[in-house]
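Contributing new records

If you add data, match the layout below exactly. Sequence lines come first and carry their own label; structure lines follow with theirs. Keep one chain per record. Anything else will be rejected by the validation script.
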Amino acid sequence: QVQLLETGGGLVQPGGSLRLSCAATTSIFSTNTMGWYRQSPGNERELVAQISDTGITKYGDSVKGRFTITRGSARDIVNLQMDNLRLEDTAVYYCFVRSRGKGWDSRDGWGQGTQVTVSA
């Protein structure tokens, strides 16, 4: 239901950096978690990173120490700084949001995906 716009991604050499951004273009609730999953051919979808409205972060084991997720000035914007990229980071990265209003009300969504390719 929630529309998310992803930017960034591209082709980078091993050891390089990329910065992804994601913004909700439709309204979300203040209580929310935003982040990215990624998926590459032959692999299951895996969590890359997420951040709650209170600033609690979670990272996938494979990216800890290399990726940093932060909130933008607006609560519906999130950024992912990816440093020291490796070949195995190559995947399509999908931004997501899970938000919860009062009672059972929720507003969730996925971005369109952005390709990250790490190659020499």
